[in-house]
What does this fold into?
Amino acid sequence: MTYVSKSLDINTAAIKAAFSYEKTVIVRETVCKKSGVRTAVCFIDGMVNGKIVNESIIERIIDFDAKSSESFINELASFGVCASDTKTERDIEKLKNGLCEGNTVVFVDGEEKALLIDTKGYLLKAITEPAGESISKGPHEGFTEEILVNMSLLRRRIANPDLKMEMMEIGEKTHTKVCLCYIDKIVKKRTVREVKKRLALLDCDEILDSNYIAEYIRDNPYSPFKTVGSTERPDSVAAKLLEGRVAIMVNGTPAVLTVPYIFAEYFQSSEDYYVSFYYATVGRILRFISFFISISLPSLYVAFTNYHQDEIPIKLFIAIAASRDGVPISNLLEVIVMLIGFELLREAGDRIPASFGVSLSVVGTLVIGQVAVTAKLISAPVVFIVAITATTGLLIPKMKGAIIFVRLVILALSSVLGIYGYLLGITLLTVYLCSMRSFGVEYMDYLLPVFRKSSPDVPLRSIIPAMKRRPDFAQSRRRRGEKND
It folds into this structure.
């Protein structure tokens, strides 16, 4: 650890050496008119509020007149500079990190400590609705890349001193600010302890996005299913905190992590609570059905057409056989080629500008599918099967990767064992999901009868007055100030 020297020249030389190739680092040496004390004001141009640096720091230092025999720097901090946050610091490395964050450092000749003043003034992105989580009703605000702005957005929704926000730094090189958020009287203490323990065990150089932390702290790290939630909506995070979860904010990214995360959350949306509970319930049912259709339809088509033709109605079987007349590849290869083709089009649509993405996805799929059927490369039923499969998969965008993986595994089993392979795949999937946990909570909580507990909100959306109890992983189970269990 390197400490601040009494020599002003040594301190300024250390700053200049650390940022020798950085032309925006300004070291402004000044002299107090009345006392003659030499000082140096250091900041990074473009990261600070120039008005605060010039008027509230430099001008006031030049005109400052010490009134007592107290340490000059302590008196300067108390009566000299005007800033919302001013503190003294001896560690030169912390001062360098403070400069990188948009703070201003003031060295005083003859003092073994420096002032670290909050003067952040860099441009921030405007608060807008997250593109991937847009809703028709409800709040249209989204988190930004600045952690202080995100904290204020959350504070506005939960104006309660029980909302705790603990700051920490993670990353040996990036020193990324991370904020741990929870509601003290609702969350279980062991959940907070477990999150802090996993964060403390992080050993890495850089944290550039919240997903870096998610992959370090999640249960079942190689599972295609998430055990750490992620959202860019302040209202969603507030609702999860009020259910006894913990949120993790990371500076530099709008995505906020929430734990624990259970399987049922894939099928929930913040809009469910801003519309009629009848409409929200229908929406949830459609999402559950869409999940099973997306992972099952290609497998069932291959299983029945290859192994169980006698179970297909005769007219439907004749239509399928007629459409396959002249197609040179097998049913299985047809399905795989079309699934891969659709994923290629979807990825291309995500990578190009939004104005072209929709056109590419819709027109490209229609044109390629029609040409493939006309050229007898693919049969029409397969195009229909893949179109339904892809459309239903879009209803659950957060499960995209998991659906693709599960769909291929079940398709492989069905191609070998027919309908028995499909049933085996569904059974293995259910057993696997039941074996998973997220921060001590069963992953299939509230969905299967063995895990079914007192929650009127899962899997169907109940009326809000009936939701009097929080999930079982919360410390305080009763809402609205009633006596806790």
Observations:
- Residues 470 and 477 are 5 Å apart (CA to CA).
- The longest helix spans residues 277-307.
- Residues 277-442 form one domain.
